[in-house]
Amino acid sequence: MFCRECGAFMDDSQTVCPACGAGQEGGKKKKGKGKGILIAVIVLILLAAIGAGAYFFISHNSPEAKTMRFIAQGEQCLADKEYKDAVSAFEDALEVTPDSLDAYQGIVDAYLGMDKADKLPDVYEDASDNLGKSDLKELRAYIFDTVESLIKKAMKKDDRDLADEYVSMLFDIDEDMAADIMNKYLPVYDDPGVQPAVDVPSVDVPPVTVVTDHQSLEDANMTLTLWCIATEADSTRRSYESAIEDLARQYPNITLNWEAYENYSYKTKIKTAVAANEMPDIFFTWSGAFLQDFVNAGAVYCLDDVYRDYASELPESMLSNSTYYGSHYGVPLTMNVVTLFANMDMLKEAGYDEIPGTFSEFVECCDALKEEGNIPFGCAAYETWCVEEYLEPIMLKTVGAYDLHDIFLGNMTWNDDRIAASVDMFQDLIANGYFDPDADKMSNDEVRYEFENGKYAFYINGSWNCADFANYCPFEVGVGEFPVVDPYYGESGTFIGGPSDTLAVSANCLYPELTAQYAFELAKRISNYGYLDGCGLSSWRVYMDDSNLNTITRQVQEMCNDAESFVLFGDTIMNADDAYTYLDYVSEVYFGMINGDGFIDGLARDIR
Least C-beta-crowded within 10 Å: which of 261, 316, 512, 535? Predict the structure, then answer.
């Protein structure tokens, strides 16, 4: 230190300056002051540590934290299908936070998992005492959306009793909303003595023409008109001509006057005819939104009664794309579906004798292929329809056919977490290196060529590739469907694609029942002839000799014969404006410009 009087250097232990003799009483006090500061700092640190520990203890045991832990426990039980334990966990969450919407939704899922839908009205009644108006409305919508998907599954399996039970339960929650669902899915009571259990007002549905003609086609003497797009240059022309010739021989008293128009001009012509009520008796149409507009206008004859006579030849799954409000309005022709093609030689080298049946096994297979130095997929990313054929099967096997169909048609919102999860899964496959990065710069023709020459293990694309692969692939080609991702909603035997080309009958034709019978007979023959000509798969059971067709095509046809349901390509089932918007978002998904949440938020905003 230094002397306070003269500034001479001093040892810290000295109290008197050796130079001037001045006392330095403050020297040791200064040292003591530094020690006091150190002690104060230590005390502050200890107090801070104690405070942080107390805060952690308090926050970790706060009502919010406890509720989150109980809900997480319940969600894990749901995932493990331990539904009783899930109910207990969610009820524990409600003990802490009675107004937890997440807990109530979890209880709904658990009871449905136990097939105890009858418990839901009690859950809703309890929630009405605890939730605010907004959350209660959201819970009600959640119950109805979830149960509606179960009603659709029940109707698909012809389990009318189960569907009735679900609807009856919904009436105990909200009669008006339940009435809408009942009239949407259970509108027809064939026995006039059987009436709905609850007297409710019906919703507006397209009128159904009353059938008054009871002749058979053999006895009929009539002239019918047909409009189609089978021009001289169209690949389906020969199948139309062959079918019409067959019917002319079989029913000589029925005259068919038919005209074919170019594709684009026909769309305008048929829309104009519908608006002017000047339609032909039978007309070609595309299913999905295109036909639905005509159905909504009351311009199309309902085919339910006539279909019963053809059910053994035409699986009802083939009518799913032209079914509206629970009734059938179109007769399908040929079709195509998204098919999973596999290089079986490459799979066998990786230790797989068949295409994996579950999504987790499928991912493991892709990892095994990479370890062998092989590339699982190639996709022409700049041709967005190719990306669509990879993404949509994942959505289908996560969301389920009925819900995806309704989302595409606008009957359900895009704002669906399951759709977001599907997008994220697809992006994970890309991020994991399963897709050839060089394929981004290729056309689909080039990618298909690379698959044919053994570069990729899998190729997901339309069934129209069957003949080429049978002719050009030097390896065994396996065919299958994309594996189920979420077994609660998705199911095997469901395909993207299916019948789009369709015949429909005017609601105002002179002999609607006979005309409908003729349309079924005509479509059956067009579908079979088109299948043999290589124009697509047959929507109908194949009754003609197909032994000369390649094995791959026949295998895909057999898969479709046993299919549960089909969902048209998103850009096909939507109207044109929505389709363009949808494809823009699909393209952004592949290149990582948006994630799953961005995909559903954007489509919910820009389409509906």
Answer: 316
